[in-house]
């Protein structure tokens, strides 16, 4: 699905490092190349014997460089130099990427693409990207099927290899739950709402009955809506790429449930990724938040030392995903074969496991889940929660939902034009829904 992040993947990737910095359960070592990745014999690209420089274009603090993966690759391949270029914000990076792809110039050898943009890239740039599904070192079966499908174009060619994903859990404050008379052990907490987001609403009603003064059950109605939508098998677009947001019952169910949270006084009426939301973590204003894997680092950063041991992680009512990215190889590159090998190596399970351990980016390669650095990962800040186990289970259960070309725009409009008004101003859900639909139509020139 398209991620609905206030400041795009900058927030997600820049702060996910805080998760990786405190994970326990594995030992960081230089990753070995997966079978066939980076090891097949090859001839010098330019015939000069000079070192080949490959460039990687990313947005935000993507994590590949920070985790030391480029350095490892260069040690394994002395004839290759890897250099990264980065723009801070995806809303600046992505339009430039489209411009450069169209022009066939100004591109890195490998480019990152955020999940909210991947469908548009695959729909409009197929002739300008190299197929990677059979590149040396790539094993389609090593990836989650739904993630592999997101990187596959309508013509059946896989043009994008998945890096991270955002499988969802629910993070909760044990101390506030205890004061409200709710269970605090993560298994019992997960059972409160297992299988149904409406049970999450019911748990909120129970919390409200004995809520500690000045606290709410969850942060925002928009956060609830994003989480519920993220667990649906159909969201904003159908399998044919047609926009169905206005008529999809799953979207309307998410809308109605989120509106119920707002109208029943269960939210702190905050807007995510704003200073007020950040401060609310530190002040203990809400007891739960929909929590993709990358959110752990965000919570740790914003709640600070005082939140250590108070926060924990439980399974979400239904598996869902919020966030993630891909790597593509532009056909205009000078070193396309070498770029494909690099992209394959960076996204292989061993490297994704290292990226998770060192930076907190959860792997899209399910083959990484059996590796000790993922399978045994625990997070001391969150009560030693078995985060590798929790998020791997969520990732495997994510439905294979189509991603549309304007997923990110639709999600943000639903949240900021629509649900935010219900939550913060008391606007009627029906009126806000109509306003959001009109804004989406205007933005898409419909």
Written description of the protein model:
This protein has helices spanning 9-20, 69-76, 90-103, 115-124, 145-150, 174-179, 186-192, 197-209, 221-230, 249-263, 275-283, 295-303, 336-346, 349-359, 372-375, 387-397, 407-425, 429-443; strands at 52-59, 80-87, 110-114, 161-173, 216-218, 286-292, 311-315, 321-328, 362-363. It is α/β, with parallel strands linked by helices. The protein has 2 domains: 23-165 and 323-385, 3-Layer(aba) Sandwich (D-Maltodextrin-Binding Protein, domain 2), CATH 3.40.190.10; 167-322 and 400-443, D-Maltodextrin-Binding Protein, domain 2. Strands 1, 2, 3, 4, 5, 6, 7, 8 and 9 form a 9-stranded mixed beta sheet that branches. α1 crosses α14 (349-359). The longest helix is centred in the last third of the chain and has 19 residues, at 407-425. The chain is globular and about 75 Å long. It comes from Streptomyces gardneri.
- Helix content range of the residues, please? 40-55%
Q: Could you tell me the number of beta strands?
A: 9
Query: Order of SSEs, N→C?
Result: HEHEHEHHEHHHEHHHEHEEHHEHHHH
Query: What is the makeup of the main sheet?
Result: 9 strands, mixed
Rg value: 22 Å
Discrete helix count: 18
Q: Tell me the name of the CATH homologous superfamily of the largest domain.
A: Periplasmic binding protein-like II
**Mean pLDDT value:** 90
* End-to-end gap: 22 Å
Under CATH, the topology of the largest domain can be stated as D-Maltodextrin-Binding Protein, domain 2
Strand content: 5-15%
How does the helix and strand content classify structurally?
alpha/beta
CATH secondary-structure class of the largest domain = Alpha Beta
User: Which segments are poorly predicted (pLDDT under 50) over 5 or more consecutive residues?
Assistant: 1-21, 26-45
Shape: globular
The CATH architecture of the largest domain comes to 3-Layer(aba) Sandwich
Please indicate the count of domains.
Answer: 2
Protein name: Sugar-binding protein
Organism: Streptomyces gardneri
InterPro entries: Bact_solute-bd_prot1 (IPR050490), SBP (IPR006059)
Signal peptide: 1-28
